[in-house]
Amino acid sequence: MAVLNKEYFKEELTETYELPAEAIAFYNEFGYVKLKNVLSAKVLEYYGELITDLVFKLNQLTKPMEERTTYERAFLQIMNLWLENEEVKEFVFSKRLAKIATDLMQVQGVRLYHDQALYKESSGGITPWHADQFYWPLSSPKTVTVWIPLQTTLMEMGPLAFAEKSHNVEIGRDLEISDESEAFMNEQLKQFAVNETPFDLGEVSFHAGWLFHRAGANVSGKARKVMTMIYMDKDQRVVEPGNTYQQADWEVWLSSKPIGSLADGPKNPLLFTY
């Protein structure tokens, strides 16, 4: 039975999700979209257990919460789990999810930039306002992250919140995740509506690389377990790193590909193409 279940789970990860017609227009206007019933409870349970085992196996952040920085209190962050486990690789390489990313960005295909598990511990603090692409030496804004809660995520767990349409402005694009980014953007983002709502089991979100987002503290008494994949246009090119974080990303995730070349290094496989 376990073998049959596993094959069924693999099939679900490749089946096409019927993307609502209005989802693409919403994503383009607001910079994000939340989609219900993208993954079944069984798939999330099966792969969630594997992901959780890897997170605790690979985690090296063991300092007491009171000794951590704001960034460290936000979550345990483990990257490129697909290189550690073949079954987790099945999840990360899901054509179902990669096709949604392709269609939302209105491109011809997507590559993986990297995956990352983001586990906000039961006493974890806020995730400050930030835009992900601050960290990425990539040529175009055609990037998107899928945020996949591995459990129903109520408000007290710190679901992702989105500053609607903030991907269209350039304020704050030089800020890393920090207390400073939280304070600055709290003031600046008064001009934007903020969507902060719970996530049902099986509901996921996709947000653009330059969209500002944050998450509240986890006061639920349970860990908030989330898996993410970052997708980029298959024709994305590498640019000169503009800060130390981009320099590190260029070396680690982009395998130091030559500036101006396609971002198609060994860690950036093609996940979907038309």
From TrEMBL:
It holds the Pfam family PhyH. The keyword Transmembrane helix does not apply. Keywords: Dioxygenase, Oxidoreductase. One of its GO terms (molecular function) is 2-oxoglutarate-dependent dioxygenase activity. It comes from the Bacteria. Transmembrane segments: none annotated. The keyword Oxidoreductase applies. This is Ectoine hydroxylase-related dioxygenase, phytanoyl-CoA dioxygenase (PhyH) family.
